[in-house]
Amino acid sequence: MSQKQERQQVIRELVATRSVSSQEELRQLLAERGWDVTQSTLSRDMHDLRVARVPTHGGVRYTTADASAATDNRTSLASLVPQLFLGLDFVRELIVVKTVVAGAQPISEAIDSEGSPDVLGTIAGENNILIICRSDAARERVAKRLLTLARK
């Protein structure tokens, strides 16, 4: 295993087992484990791992899509949307989903993983997702589901 893979494994473990609320806190936890990393290296690792900062009842903390997901993709989407979703808008067969910063990638990946016949595909940025649906009716079903999940 390469040093990068080992370091990223430690990051995954720290984020999964601790309530980490800042990159500096994570950097210090890594240093305690013998990993002296720069902020830019840590940012790249977090991007690679799809680590997102999400609001919780105890304040904001980092999590990964893997940590939020249960065994199936439906549960994954159901667990991510309430934490990361801010709103949506649509026109014709297109939906634009607004998320918290760094929330678009995990939700987009969960949508794509489901393989819904209503969704042709997604394009995600940092905090916006474009969902391309097969029809207006498909768009209505997808939008309704996302709004329902967001209210849970």
Overall average residue pLDDT = 87
Strand order of the largest sheet: 3-4-6-5
Shape, per Cα inertia axes:
elongated
| End-to-end gap | 40 Å
The CATH topology annotation of the largest domain reads as Gyrase A, domain 2
What's the architecture of the largest domain, going by CATH?
2-Layer Sandwich
User: How many H/I helices?
Assistant: 7
Rounded to an integer, what's the Rg over CA atoms? Answer: 17 Å
Secondary-structure element order, as H and E? HHHEEHHEEHEEH
- How large is the share of residues in beta strands? 15-25%
DSSP helix fraction: 40-55%
Summed up, the domain count is 2
Quick one: biggest sheet?
A: 4 strands, antiparallel
State the secondary-structure class.
alpha+beta
- Stretches where pLDDT falls below 50 for ≥5 residues? 68-75
Using DSSP, what is the number of strands? 6
Summarize the entry for a quick read:
The protein has 152 residues and is α+β, with helices and mostly antiparallel strands. The chain is 52% helix and 24% strand.
